[in-house]
Fold these 2 entries.
Entry 1:
Amino acid sequence: MSATLNQTTVNDDLEPMPPLPPAASARLAAFLTKIERLTPTFIGYPCSQDYDHTNLAPFMRYSLNNVGDPFADSIYRENTFEFERDVVRFFQMHLRAEEGSTWGYVTAGGTEGNLYGLYLGRELFPDGVVYYSEHTHYSVAKIVRVLGARSIMIRGQDNGEMDYDDLYETLKLRRDVPPIIMANIGTTMHGAVDSLPRISQMLKDLAITRHYIHADAALSGMILPYVEDPQPFGFDAGIDSIAVSGHKFIGAPMPCGVALARRRNVDRVARSVEYVGCMDTTIAGSRNAISPLVMWSAIERWGEDGLRRRVQRSIETADYAIQQFAQHGIEAWRHRNSVTVVFPRPGGEVIDRWQIAPSRDIAHIITMPHVTRAMVDCAVADVAQSLGKA
Ligand SMILES: Cc1ncc(COP(=O)(O)O)c(C=O)c1O
């Protein structure tokens, strides 16, 4: 027989949380104004801003926590596992996973997804060597150090793809060591997609049968499923795991993402944990439970047609930007199916105003769905002036 307990009895003895003191309130208000002022010039990083999730505010009153495996039970039931599972299923479908062959969870972002994929690769092949191109996101070198894995950096081509000849020659020298290959499906600076067919062919030609391929699809993992002629990017192209960011193309008020991996490799690392009564298959213990709600909500609100429209719009805006640069005599370009527009590096003031990420002698703008043609006109004019081409 269980004792009865109602919400009023529970709250009776509690001291209500005090309101914010006036000075703290004023500080928050000023901070909001500052952020609002930054938004119209947010064009340099791949974070969509065309959303409003304030309808999810009621969930800010609960200690939601997605500790553990979203596909298993947990004693901690104030979680959003049911929404997380839907988000994972959405990505399994779009990343072309064979039914039942993969597992996944919502991460804190692309970096955690890459850590997860490379962790599984290293667990499968403890003596393996991680190969990644010089155009790979900076976090991967750190991940390799965290994992204590051996690694080799592969040269990159000027267009952002890896240098396939360098990969081939390097693999050839170490055919006895299982390679853990980190393929970029949209590099950070150039939006370049490494050729998964070429990588697979190379492994076949060298008769390397023990290998692992992780795909970093932070941004393009949400673009390629919606274009007519995508470069190979999913499980059907031979990958073993993939990471996609949620706060990038979908857009979210907090960093988030998804990691998917072949189930058989996940099963190797799964451990049952008595403390939370769940399977410990994720990197973190406690995990953000609001981000699955945000991602699920965005997917539901846009629907397939809406998501496709956003991709088309972003690609059209990227082409528009290239034309505008050309009108100023500035050579700008983008990869096929990418919304990252690359151009010569402008001066510091422009970088600062438009929050543009530079790398050596290039910079880029990324025409995410919230980027308007008016923003592009203004940014291009600033770049032109800075480069003496106004
Ligand atoms: C290609 C690529 N991979 C990984 C990351 C890291 O993702 P996050 O910032 O979500 O951890 C980024 C971020 O820009 C990226 O561009």
Note: The CA atoms of residues 312 and 381 lie 24 Å apart.
Entry 2:
Amino acid sequence: MKIAIIYTTTGGTTRECGELLARELSGQDVTLFDMDERHDLSDYDVAVIGFPIRMARPARRAKRYIKEHKGELLTIKSAYYMCCGFIDFADEYARQALPCELYESALDITCLGGSLDPARFKGFDKLIVKSVRSEILGGGNNGDQRDDMALPTILDENISQLADLIKKSV
Ligand SMILES: Cc1cc2nc3c(=O)[nH]c(=O)nc-3n(C[C@H](O)[C@H](O)[C@H](O)COP(=O)(O)O)c2cc1C
């Protein structure tokens, strides 16, 4: 089974999750692509599309990619993962990213976690990440970490579950 993992990223976390997923799929024929790298979906049995969330929206590059490749994605198996800061909104973000037919036919749509490490970002993005991070870490009444929010991390368990679903789909 040939699997393509196709991601776009700003801070590198979506790529890192793609790499971890590829490692979990070891033994399979897996290729990892940046969305802007040349590839042909018709060469693959499964496409896994990864994208980050920015300003409550799926990355624009990913929305465009999914729209442009909708027809091909419907002819093979597809799965989708996102990286974000607020996992509770993952389904809302997925519905924005995917046309109904892809949402309904996906092998899996999941959140693999995220990172709010300012060192991963530059310029405006770094400022936003620092501000959200300090809201989470210092936003409690006593200046303590809020107990209703936590800094996101990469969710290894969700990566394993996604890998298992892909392997079972053969
Ligand atoms: C400018 C900016 C805006 C963001 N907005 C959101 C958001 O609205 N919701 C959310 O859950 N995460 C948000 N995040 C967090 C990112 O989704 C998270 O840092 C993710 O790990 C980024 O993935 P990447 O490193 O692959 O770009 C935002 C991050 C940045 C830099």
Note: The radius of gyration is 16 Å.
